[in-house]
Design brief:
- With 401 residues, this protein is an alpha/beta fold.
- 59% of the residues lie in helices and 6% in strands.
- The protein has 16 helices and 5 strands.
- Helix 5 (152-161) crosses helix 10 (246-275), helix 7 (177-186) crosses helix 8 and helix 12 runs antiparallel to helix 14 (345-373).
- The longest helix is centred in the first third of the chain and has 32 residues, at 92-123.
- The protein is elongated and about 115 Å long.
- It starts with a helix and ends with a helix.
Amino acid sequence: MNSDKSEDISNNSLERDNDTFMEERQPTPHQKVAAAANDDSSATPVYGDGQMNSSSHEKQQTSPVRQPSAPSQGPLGQHPQQHVSFFSKEYKPHRLQIHKRFVLINTLMATLILTALSIYWGSYYNINDNLKELKMLVVIGDENTIDGIPPAFGNAMEEVLQRPQSKASGDWHIFKESEFKQLAEDHDNTIRGEIIRRVHHQLYWAAIYVKPNASYNYHQALVNGDTKYNASDNTVAVYYETGRDFLAMRSYVTPQLQKIQSMWFSEQPKILTQLSENVTIESTAQKQVFSQPIHFTMVDRIPFTNNVLSAPLQVGFIYMIIVSFFQFNFFAEPHQKVAKTPVKRIHYVAYRYISSLFSFFFLSLIFGLITLAYQVKFTATYGKSGFLVYWSIAFLTMSAV
């Protein structure tokens, strides 16, 4: 009977400690034999006095002795997990799942790479064939015949831009000054002011302006031998802004303008012969005016003069995107801790969103301060607010990522 009661007590203890069974120890076979011997000896009367036997039985029932335990072999007496070969039959189901997952992840990554990089690679594919899509503005102010002097410069420019070679170098939008005047008046601008405005607002990559009465003015300078007359400054002006995209301007736009200028040079003998047809060139001054080449006057409205700008305008954007991604990984641990707390789901989503914005707000400031530290001027366009504009653009860029 004592043995049965001891087993009941042990079972009750096992049920109470079921949640922490990993900490319990199973008795060794030697301990089990010793416990059985104790149970048998307790059932045999040792003392002659029956009262002593009775008290001994009561002590055994009320205060069972807990035997020392041996190291466990696993949960509830199970054997420890055995390791198998990766190529064994037992591991085949897991191996198939790994293979499927491996193929799926690589397929997704390949799709992402093909989608994203194809756009970038494609932007450079046959790029020379796409130069004809560069929008260029041309305003011809030399359009009137004055005192029998034809608009030779204006006619020559229009003829040059109609050539197939010119059409392959850009999309030339040609306006007579009389046509363009109405567009300028709509914005309360002069002809020159409206040309500059359209280039600055990135409606065109560049603009060629043949100045008004250029042919007549050149003829008069030739007749009078006016050596102070600068034919290049008073004939053709080209307006562009390198600051819009210094790589594109230097690589694609400016070279196309130089091609047009080369074709323009090839037409100058015909033009000058036409303008000097009724002029007797005798003096040295007249010969000097007649012999000077007429170049394009290149006017870069926003020149690229600080090489430090190459960093934020090129690799800086890449670093900005990388930092935006790494910010997510750096804060993964605190975000996980917040997720394990009993916080409402909607509050957790708001916490993630707001915390990311605060991080981007601070990190974008650091990007701006780095550029400012190397003495880059932010006052060219927006004055003293230029740094705030740059900071805002950096913040919006990181937030968009």
